[in-house]
């Protein structure tokens, strides 16, 4: 039952014949596109990633938002624009992913955003560093379906080496309170996931985090490999045990273990809307080097989705392969999660 639980929550909330038909058309268009090397888009995105803000309270060294290398202007998504987006996608999308760069809970209207999406039947998926989980009851009642909390250490000493500025005791204490509130009011959501990115400095705490996850009564623990950007990151962050790496390392060179696929299903199923309204093809375009358009009162996602910039981008990938810089670290087709441990 535990392994089925999150999937059951998703199907129960998000499955609708009209939305299923939309995904079916999209998949068919993608398959035809691969055959003819021309983009055929016969539906609309079934999942949309929306960035409430690109600001963060922590200074994680491998995160463009945290380490200060993000080139986009910092800001917050206007709630009126967010509401416009949700009103448009609610009839064909099944999921809204409320994060990209930044800590979503920093947005003053974040729980209002979650409520709005959930109330129209969108499965609402949220990722957080866990420093804003109080008071817990409004979060439990917000309609968030899955809440992923990233912690990369089982002790403060280890945790703070990457989550710079973070307080692990606070994260664990507030998460424990949230799980307890779920139990008291009999709520099955949010489905809670503890995520642990395995790095050089925390590899020795894998067993400890498994024990802590059980004690915290979260629904699932995910052990995930780290994403790096340059050769300096190899010695600083990659774990010594190669089975915990997503890269093959030769001296100062590194590349993904799996060969990149020539085509990209993500371009048919999950666009990103940044906090300034700019639409990008995927979450690996962190600085919006490839803007597909901008959401405004007079411009819809559906229009941008099938307009020339997006179609030309898809065509380039179909004919030339995934040769763009943003593709080099892409996880599509690669197993990034080393292990998922169901705990309830």
Could you name the key traits of this structure?
globular, alpha/beta, 344 residues
Question: How would you characterize the largest beta sheet?
Answer: 10 strands, mixed
Radius of gyration: 20 Å
Write the H/E string, N to C.
HHEHHEHEHEHHEHEHEEEEEHHE
Helix share, percent: 25-40%
Identify the overall geometry: globular
- What value does the average pLDDT take? 94
Give, in spatial order, the strands making up the sheet with the most strands: 11-10-9-1-2-3-4-5-6-12
Structural class comes to alpha/beta
Strand content: 15-25%
Span of the ends, CA to CA:
8 Å
Number of strands: 12
Unreliable residue stretches: none
- What's the tally of helices? 12
Task: Describe, in plain words, how this protein is organized in 3D.
The chain is an alpha/beta fold and 344 residues long. Helices cover 35% and strands 15% of the residues. It is built from twelve helices and twelve strands. It has helices spanning 2-14, 17-36, 64-67, 79-89, 110-119, 136-140, 156-159, 168-185, 206-216, 232-237, 301-306, 308-320; strands spanning 47-50, 95-97, 123-128, 146-150, 191-198, 220-225, 247-250, 253-256, 272-273, 278-280, 293-294, 337-342. Strands 11-10-9-1-2-3-4-5-6-12 form a ten-stranded mixed β-sheet, with helices on both faces. Strands 7-8 form a two-stranded antiparallel sheet. Strand 3 (123-128), helix 6 and strand 4 (146-150) form a beta-alpha-beta unit.
């Amino acid at each position: 039952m535990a392994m089925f639980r999150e999937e059951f929550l998703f199907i129960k909330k998000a499955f609708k014949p009209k939305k299923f038909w939309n995904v079916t058309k999209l998949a068919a268009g993608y398959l035809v596109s691969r055959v003819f090397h021309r983009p055929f888009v016969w539906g609309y995105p079934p999942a949309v990633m929306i960035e409430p803000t690109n600001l963060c309270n922590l200074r994680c060294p491998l995160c463009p938002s945290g380490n200060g290398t993000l080139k986009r202007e910092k800001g917050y998504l206007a709630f009126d624009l967010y509401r416009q987006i949700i009103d448009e996608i609610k009839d064909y999308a099944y999921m809204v992913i409320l994060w990209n760069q930044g800590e979503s809970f920093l947005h003053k209207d974040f729980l209002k955003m979650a409520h709005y999406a959930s109330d129209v039947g969108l499965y609402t998926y949220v990722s957080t560093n866990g420093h804003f989980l109080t008071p817990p009851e409004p979060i439990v009642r917000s309609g968030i379906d899955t809440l992923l909390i990233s912690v990369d250490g089982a002790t403060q000493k280890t945790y703070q080496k990457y989550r710079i500025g973070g307080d692990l005791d606070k994260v664990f204490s507030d998460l424990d309170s949230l799980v307890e509130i779920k139990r008291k009011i009999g709520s099955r959501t949010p489905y809670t996931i503890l995520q642990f990115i395995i790095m050089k400095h925390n590899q020795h705490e894998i067993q400890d985090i498994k024990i802590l996850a059980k004690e915290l009564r979260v629904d699932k623990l995910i052990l995930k490999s780290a994403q790096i950007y340059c050769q300096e990151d190899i010695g600083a962050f990659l774990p010594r045990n190669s089975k915990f790496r997503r890269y093959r390392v030769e001296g100062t060179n590194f590349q993904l273990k799996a060969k990149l696929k020539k085509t990209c299903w993500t371009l048919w199923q999950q666009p990103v809307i940044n906090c300034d309204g700019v639409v990008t093809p995927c979450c690996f375009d962190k600085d919006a080097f490839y803007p597909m358009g901008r959401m405004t009162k007079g411009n819809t996602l559906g229009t941008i989705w099938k307009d020339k910039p997006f179609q030309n981008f898809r065509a380039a990938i179909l004919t030339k392969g995934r040769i763009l810089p943003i593709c080099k670290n892409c996880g599509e087709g690669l197993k990034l999660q080393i292990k998922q441990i169901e705990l309830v």
